[in-house]
């Protein structure tokens, strides 16, 4: 029972009243956008992911949050690590489903899974 209190999954399912502003920002951004990319401006893998969406899916709205330009960027990245287990960027969500980083996103595109998820 004690481990339940330490579990990242348990913390994620707390009531919205107890959510921090960072949690609310991340969750609302993910749920309100077809594609959300948590990125950093200096990351080459982030650039590759953003290019994939702009080149291959130009009509799909993509919300990009550049964590290195946001005051609460480190807190957002920390929350994403708890939420997804992924500590790196890019951190990609499609229709609220976590895809992963650049490698996973590129693989999803190559396999046709990404197009299917975007209904294209």
Automatic annotation (TrEMBL):
Gene3D superfamilies documented for this protein: Glutaredoxin
A GO-annotated cellular component: Golgi lumen
Annotated GO MF terms: glutathione-disulfide reductase (NADPH) activity
InterPro entries per record: GLR_AS, Glutaredoxin, Glutaredoxin_euk/vir, Glutaredoxin_subgr, Thioredoxin-like_sf
Domain named Glutaredoxin: residues: 35-99
CDD domains per record: GRX_GRXh_1_2_like
Keyword Disulfide bond: yes
GO BP, sorted A to Z: cellular response to oxidative stress
Isomerase recorded as keyword: no
PROSITE patterns: GLUTAREDOXIN_1, GLUTAREDOXIN_2
Keywords: Disulfide bond, Electron transport, Redox-active center, Transport
Pfam families, A to Z: Glutaredoxin
Similarity comment: Belongs to the glutaredoxin family. Monothiol subfamily.
Protein name: Thioredoxin-like protein
Organism: Lentinula aciculospora
Lineage: Eukaryota, Fungi, Dikarya, Basidiomycota, Agaricomycotina
